């Protein structure tokens, strides 16, 4: 039974808190260690706004909406951010060369062992450096978290990984070939993906395909059902070179426009970070975000506004790389927690009485 279920004692009950406290103290030590690591490398810790004109424009992310009331009584739609990304990039445009934020973010329709409506992202950016630099950062962050937690091994649901081992690096195409027997590159073209070709390959691999699935739907299903659980076993995995169609905020590869400068970090089958070579072409970014919102409206019947201030700032943003890491998941892996609520000081009750 979940500690937050109606029949369970509340998390503030003394005996419940005592069981959670070791995980929470581990969280505190990890945050302190990471803050010190970033400070030693000349990162400036920033605090960007939580209430935004746009919460972000990814198709499948759902925001919490609110209303801003002006002194004259005028009303404007606002949202709790799903990421600090847009605001952080404005600071890069302003001239900050290295920034990090320990950001509270909010995503609706998300609840489970690894998901919570309110959680923390550690998001950092480097100006003038290639996105591969972030891969070295990830290896260092895993080691720092392990040392702070006093552990030699990360674990989750029977899987384990050495946080001090050099992460393996694997392309998405390699992962699809190895774990699903799919030639992903053969289904890609510069404008997107060949839906029929991927559907046929996925079906042959035993993945169920619905008639209205898009290329992106099929890609995501193969990734979840065949690939993710095999990553980060024994040591972390850096899953690199995502299809450009699944990287709306990143630059495309100079070697192959079908591929993006995007990677994700997996540990014990859990995705904990998402890094980019950041797109700074404002016109192309607008086109991609408008496409994302058109898809959102098609699937969910809603769309969010674009952040025009962000798009204006993007034209002034220098070459940069950036990454968002799920702090709560990192703490779970380092402390052995089984559910995200165990590492949150005040998790949101599933039901309010």
Structural commentary:
The structure is a single chain. By secondary structure, the protein is α+β, with helices and mostly antiparallel strands. It has one domain: Bira Bifunctional Protein, Domain 2 (BirA Bifunctional Protein, domain 2, 2-Layer Sandwich), CATH 3.30.930. Helices cover 35% and strands 21% of the residues. The protein has 9 helices and 15 strands. The chain has an 8-stranded mixed beta sheet with strand order 1-5-6-15-14-13-12-9, with helices on both faces. Strands 2-4-3 form a 3-stranded antiparallel beta sheet, with no helix packed on it. β10 and β11 form a beta hairpin. The longest helix is centred in the first third of the chain and has 27 residues. The two termini are 18 Å apart. 41% of the residues are buried. The N terminus is likely disordered.
The CATH superfamily appears as Bira Bifunctional Protein, Domain 2
Category from helices, strands and their pairing: alpha+beta
**Total number of distinct structural domains:** 1
The CATH architecture is 2-Layer Sandwich
- The helical percent reads 25-40%
Spatial arrangement of strands, main beta sheet: 1-5-6-15-14-13-12-9
Q: From the 3D structure, determine the CATH topology.
A: BirA Bifunctional Protein, domain 2
Strand content: 15-25%
Rg is: 20 Å
Instruction: State the end-to-end distance.
Output: 18 Å
Q: Helical element count?
A: 9
